[in-house]
């Protein structure tokens, strides 16, 4: 039953052929049987989920449906680790994130905390301090990241659906590499309150699901203005499922020339080109466009994201919670050893980089300049969207790579997000849907569709039309 | 070269706690004396994932302060993170305002009566207003308590709104700094934005001070003074600092930028940290809060700007004819001013009302440790009635002071009731008084002759005797009239 889509599970719950308890039990059983191989979960609280299942109201929008939660989102009473030693074993969430409160209000059951790159910093989930998640299609390969756990458990049928977070591609890239759907909403569409901040001006929470319909259902539940998040947009939330099953005839689909570059894996390129043809056959019109500042996106991202991270992560110092060093000599020793012991190498690298770019004398050259380039990147997109309705590209230039393959080369690792990073800098929305497989070994390939701010409905219409006319989403890893 | 030969430049940074119900970036209650960490939430404890929201009341009070002090408002104001590690500060960054504060410029008028009493007669820059650099809004930190083996932290205070008022280096003496703090306090209280009591920590002050020999020289090394807990301590610390720096400069020891901690008991300061220890705060715009437009808030607050102490004082002089000094003291406290205005409005002698409020009433309140707004025994209209009785000659000033007012304080009754009860009404019935006067003239022939020969002052001695005969109830003004008539 854990292989059901959210929509199918809902139908069975509402028809009475399945009870919330039976559904929850089957997912727990699947996790117990299958997660040893995948290591997608950091923890799960079977008791709490079953108790919630017993009182579930299936008439609610997500009534009785268990959802896996990336281990960076606060779920009251449950351990929260961010896949970091600085929180592991010492921190229990004192409150529900707004998305969790909204899921509960919609009748959903938070079940299980999924693995991730430590504090969402990474593209392979190898930066988790708690263990490496494996790609269900080939367990010698990475699932992508940072929401690798969420992607892997959805793909491996160890969850119906999951929540992830996306700062530079952390929902879309692992969704592409694991063969599921991942949607990054417009910045401000979903409240960030309760999601541990990596880079506050870039982070968004979004759904990771088996189908586009499931993403629309989840997005319905988690969207909307939140008084606790000043950056959440005070805009009406449409019924995103109403955007399903729409014609896409006449829609202009932009193909940025800067995205179709050398270095894209040939099979990824072929799958993307085939997807363009497929959309053309559905009536869409491909148009070549330019996003001239694309080449600066990665550098810009790593200045802004690390600057914000260096400040956001300052609260982890063992004074109020989390790991603390044994017998410190003095306060300074306490800070230094606590953080040296608690944070992994990538987190330290980014804190150092962020501290450096904000330092007196370097601030203008790095941080201010990066903000200016960010404005140019945002303008690239708004100009492009004058000409086209959506933009299309591969989600990742390559399919899932081998575990350990890129660990020694952070720069090579940073390039895994080359097509997804600019989306976050511009604040627009994007989705990744399965668009084929490599031949040997068989690995999923993802298609990225981008739309202007607050146009998630358009994303959903295009992605759904594509998905419904192709077989890729029906394939499961064996 | 004596201290007086140096040009002293002083700037003050004042932190004032705002009188808001809730904290700056969360809904927790602001309050003191609650059990440790009982007034906290994920936001003010810096829990993972928690985000700040803006306290509109705090923004409004800061803008109102700016309007009272004649500030300008940048079109857009925003918040920034000031990054440094400090155990009392949960996020390890302080949410403050860096380059776009809510208010800029403006000034604080130095009121004469706000100078130390001993220099009020000799104010070098009378009527001067100290220019301000800016006013911004930030958050307070928690409070550490050090025990023998560990340290505990109470975060109840963490996130309390703090308004920082930064002056230009526009102050020259400890006395001006003293007057600045007292004047500022009166204005903040008048606007209802802060209780601003330094001794209660509601207002805190850091002093920056430097010395140089001539106006042409650049400013000398800036020395920051901390741990100043009253305007008097600020004055003392500045005196000490001017002496210390000038002595060292005279001896050829140049000053080096540093922060010094003032010990008011010892009357000296010691180096707390040198410039080398200064933090690089790595300010950057707070991504969790959106910038705000100030114009709508400024418009709304314009309606709430109160009459300021110096404006009130001027009005008291014009409307009630009181002296400038009395008017400035009466308007220095919002409650005192309200009381006086109620008592003086419609009174027969408003100057006399001012005297009674400033002398008898205030000393009585002082003796009973009561604040004027808490005292109920002598409402303003009762004081007015008492003064009217004196003015109309029904009772003498002496009777009012010795008999009526103490009884009013004690019983809360009106002056009229007490006069009746005690049978104190002055005798103005000329028939009865003439008899007394005749008797006194007979018994004091020598004095009477003196008056007859033109020495009218001598009649006062006779008045005293008539008063005695009447057991104090005679109206002395009427008595002197009768006596002078009889002794023409």
Describe the structure.
The complex is a heterodimer of chains A (478) and B (488). Chain A is an alpha/beta fold and 478 residues long. Chain A is 37% helix and 13% strand. Chain A has helices at 6-15, 20-38, 46-54, 98-105, 148-155, 172-178, 212-222, 266-281, 297-312, 331-342, 345-358, 363-387, 410-414, 421-426, 456-468; strands at 41-43, 66-70, 109-114, 162-166, 181-184, 204-209, 252-256, 285-289, 390-394, 429-437, 444-451. Chain A has an eleven-stranded mixed beta sheet with strand order 1-3-2-4-6-5-10-11-9-7-8. The model of chain A has no long low-confidence stretch (mean pLDDT 96). The longest helix of chain B is centred in the middle third of the chain and has 20 residues, at 231-250. The termini of chain B are far apart. Classes of the chains: A alpha/beta (478), B alpha+beta (488).
What descriptors fit this protein?
heterodimer; A: 478 residues; alpha/beta; Amidase signature (AS) enzymes; 15 helices; 13% strand; B: 488 residues; alpha+beta; Arc Repressor Mutant, subunit A; 9-stranded mixed sheet
What is shown here, in short?
With 478 residues, chain A is α/β, with parallel strands linked by helices. Chain A has 15 helices and eleven strands.
Strand content of chain A: 5-15%
What's the alpha carbon Rg of chain B, rounded to whole Å? 30 Å
Q: Please write the string of helix (H) and strand (E) elements of chain A.
A: HHEHEHEHEHEEHEHEHHHHEHHEEH
Structural class of chain B: alpha+beta
CATH names the topology of the largest domain in chain A as Amidase signature (AS) enzymes
- State the major sheet of chain A: 11 strands, mixed
Biggest interface and which pair forms it?
A-B, 43 and 28 residues
Can you count the beta strands of chain B? 16
Q: How would you name the CATH homologous superfamily of the largest domain in chain A?
A: Amidase signature (AS) domain
Q: What is the count of distinct domains of chain A?
A: 2
Q: Write down the overall mean pLDDT of chain B.
A: 90
* DSSP helix fraction of chain A: 25-40%
